[in-house]
Write a structure and sequence with these properties.
The complex is a heterodimer of chains A (about 230) and B (about 425). Chain A has about 230 residues and is of the alpha/beta class. Chain A contains seven helices and ten strands. Chain B has two domains: about 190 residues, no CATH class; about 220 residues, no CATH class. Helix content of chain B is about 50%, strand content about 15%. In chain B, strands 1, 2, 5, 6, 7, 8, 9, 10, 11 and 12 form a ten-stranded mixed beta sheet that branches. In chain B, strand 3 and strand 4 form a beta hairpin. Classes of the chains: A alpha/beta (about 230), B alpha+beta (about 425).
Chain lengths: ~230, ~425
């Protein structure tokens, strides 16, 4: 089966300092549809940089990035934005909900992004479906200030899912939540793999990492795969 | 109906959300911009009003734009009959002949000899003169009459209602009615300068006109503002001709015959031919005050607009300042929008949409205030300033306000838009 993502020898060097620092050092990785994998490592090991490269926020200095067999290593920003919209969903540690918008409007943000236009009715249906998927459709009209951390993170997950991405990138999504709520959020994230969406989770939490299908360890920019013991 | 592209609609939706979420900031932007746009609207409206005032005064002297004016010189005794018979009864031409008239007690010199303004603004008129076909000379002392209660006016005899060419402003009483039978006692309409004289000097009403068969008893029926400083009275020519023979309707001392015509009337050709037969070459021109004053008006507008531009610049600086501060606060939002696939151009478009909407709202507000101000001005000052009467808000000033709002929106939003588009997505990763 063709890998959804195929990274080969990805290198990222942090310049602009007295001595350039290698953040990613020849990272190679294959991700298939419906897979879930966790990336663990110490702070500063390059996890977020790897996620930035995977999510097309940043370009690698060396190496090849194939998405469904197409080389996207040196994609111009305009096409990268289009791919981010059509293929990727993002969930961050700080939920990044806009406080002046309701939950539904925050989710709709991913649909009103200049990449195609959906009529209001269809937009609303998609938003409600995404909110329903994470179990908070009843909070559609609430603003973030009136929601708990777990609920806010689920709104952020709904925002990531509303465009039905093929890859979901989550950067420490439970970092700001208690254990119980964090588990619920991981459940919500993991459920997307059932429909063929790949889930890449960056986390410090070994328990959450252990629930993923694959466990990858990043240390000083070098990625190694570990066996999942649970 | 024009349909906006998906990107434009996205920019509009997000822009409106941004405005609604930051009402105080939007209001602050609007305050500084409001003054700028208001200045543009007021200046543009002021220029239109000043232009109207300038032209309104010129219209009194020169006539409305498009009026054909024929000036006729010469002292031929046939001149009067030719002009009056050609023009009389026509609705497309009015003849005006000017002559000297002294109104007051008989046998005395008028207080304003030479028909000078009674306020003394023309200075000392000098010794009494007499003129005939051979020229003018000082009157011998023996012939000089004592000064008495009489006022000299320029008497303008009209063959029809001249106001369709020269919009004299009524002050009191009524204007000459050309639809009624001519009165034997000539009815006079005074101009403001003459009316001042008759208010100062309560003279007995007898009118002496050079060449008249007898002195007349004038009947004052109204006062108009004709823009003339010289005392002047208007009379129906057919009423004057009961007393002054047609051949004497032209004053040999100060020939003043003018025919005002509607463009394209055959009167011009016929009358010119008749006058040439008498050896008189008429001078014909078409009034075009607006064009004549174009340079002056353009300069006036330029000065006004430069002033408004300066004020608008302050408004732009205000919107720019608030825009930059807002973008600084929204770094995470813009980074997040980029992360979910929003292109840089749309981010710039969102900021521009916000400033443009703010600019347009401000323009609408400034125009509304100007319209109300104009109505108040016309209501309060319309009575004392005739050119304001019936004046409506000049909508070119409204258009200028909308353009100013849009320009301010673009200029004030441009730099914040560029900044918003340049925010790196990694901002959300590092947060």
């Amino acid at each position: 089966m063709t890998a959804l993502i195929q990274l080969t020898g990805i290198t990222k060097v942090l310049k602009g300092q007295e001595q350039p620092r290698t953040i990613l050092d020849g990272v190679s990785l294959d991700v298939h549809p419906g897979e879930s994998l966790a990336i663990v490592g110490r702070s500063g090991s390059g996890k977020s940089t790897l996620l930035s490269v995977l999510g097309l926020f940043d370009r690698p200095d060396q190496g090849t990035y194939l998405l469904s067999g197409t080389d996207i290593s040196r994609l111009p920003e305009r096409r990268a934005a289009k791919l981010r919209s059509s293929h990727f969903g993002f969930v961050f540690q700080r939920f990044f909900l806009l406080k002046h918008l309701t939950a539904a409007q925050n989710v709709a943000m991913a649909l009103v992004n200049g990449q195609g236009w959906l009529p209001r009715r269809q937009r609303r249906a998609r938003v409600m479906q995404a909110l329903d998927e994470v179990g908070i459709a009843h909070l559609a009209k609430n603003r973030p200030a009136r929601m708990s951390g777990g609920e806010q993170q689920r709104v952020a997950i709904a925002r990531a899912l509303v465009r039905e991405p093929r890859i979901l990138l989550a950067d420490e999504p439970t970092g700001a939540l208690d254990t119980e709520t964090g588990t619920l959020v991981i459940d919500a994230l993991q459920s997307v793999t059932a429909r063929g969406c790949a889930l890449i989770l960056v986390t410090h939490d070994r328990d959450h990492a252990a629930r993923m299908g694959r466990l990858l360890h990043l240390d000083a920019g070098v990625l190694t795969e570990q066996l999942v013991t649970s | 109906m024009m349909r906006l592209s998906g990107r434009a609609r996205s920019a509009l939706i997000i822009g409106l959300q941004g405005i609604r979420s930051r009402k105080t900031r939007t209001l602050l932007s609007m305050v500084s911009l409001f003054l700028g746009v208001l200045a543009v609207v007021v200046v543009q409206a002021g220029a239109s009003i000043a232009e109207r005032a300038l032209l309104a005064d010129m219209e009194l002297f020169e006539g409305l734009d498009g009026t054909v004016v024929m000036d006729i010189g010469g002292t031929s005794p046939q001149l009067g009959p030719v002009v009056t018979t050609t023009v009389a009864g026509r609705s497309d031409a009015v003849a005006m002949t000017g002559m000297q008239a002294i109104i007051g007690e008989p046998g005395v010199r008028p207080v304003n000899e030479g028909g000078v303004p009674l306020d003394g603004s023309w200075g000392d008129p000098g010794p009494p003169m007499t003129c005939d076909e051979t020229g003018c000379r000082e009157l011998p002392a023996a012939e000089i009459q004592p000064k008495g209660q009489a006022i000299e006016v320029r008497l303008t005899a009209l063959t029809g209602d001249v106001r369709k060419y020269r919009p004299y402003r009524p002050q009191s009483g009524e204007w000459l009615d050309f639809s009624t039978m001519p009165s034997l006692a000539p009815r006079l309409v005074l101009n403001k300068a003459a009316a001042v004289g008759f208010e100062q000097y309560q003279v007995p009403a007898e009118m002496r006109v050079t060449g008249a068969s007898a002195n007349m008893t004038p009947h004052f029926i109204g006062v108009v503002d004709d823009g003339d400083q010289q005392p002047r009275a208007y009379v129906r020519l057919d009423e004057l001709s009961h007393w002054v023979p047609a051949a004497r309707l032209i004053d040999p001392n100060m020939s003043e015959v003018r025919v005002l015509m509607t463009a394209g009337t055959p009167v011009e050709q016929v009358l010119s031919a008749k006058l040439r037969a008498l050896g008189v070459e008429p001078m014909v021109r078409t009034v075009n005050s607006r064009e004549d004053q174009e340079e002056q008006l353009a300069l006036m507008r330029l000065v006004f607009l430069a002033m408004a531009g300066l004020v608008l610049l302050i408004g732009v600086a205000g919107i720019l300042n608030v825009g930059l501060a807002t973008v600084g606060e929204r770094v995470e939002e813009f980074a997040l929008r980029r992360a979910v696939g929003t292109p840089r151009t749309l981010l710039a478009g969102i900021v521009l949409a916000e400033t443009l909407i703010t600019g347009l709202l401000t323009a609408a507000l400034a125009i509304g205030v100007s319209v109300l101000g104009m109505k108040a001005l016309v209501t309060l000052a319309g009575g004392s300033q005739p050119f304001l009467q019936g004046m409506e808000f000049p909508w070119d000033a409204g258009v200028a306000g909308v353009i100013a709002g849009l320009i301010a929106g673009v200029l004030g939003g441009f730099v914040p838009a560029i900044r918003a588009a340049g925010i790196p997505i990694a901002t959300v990763m590092r947060a």
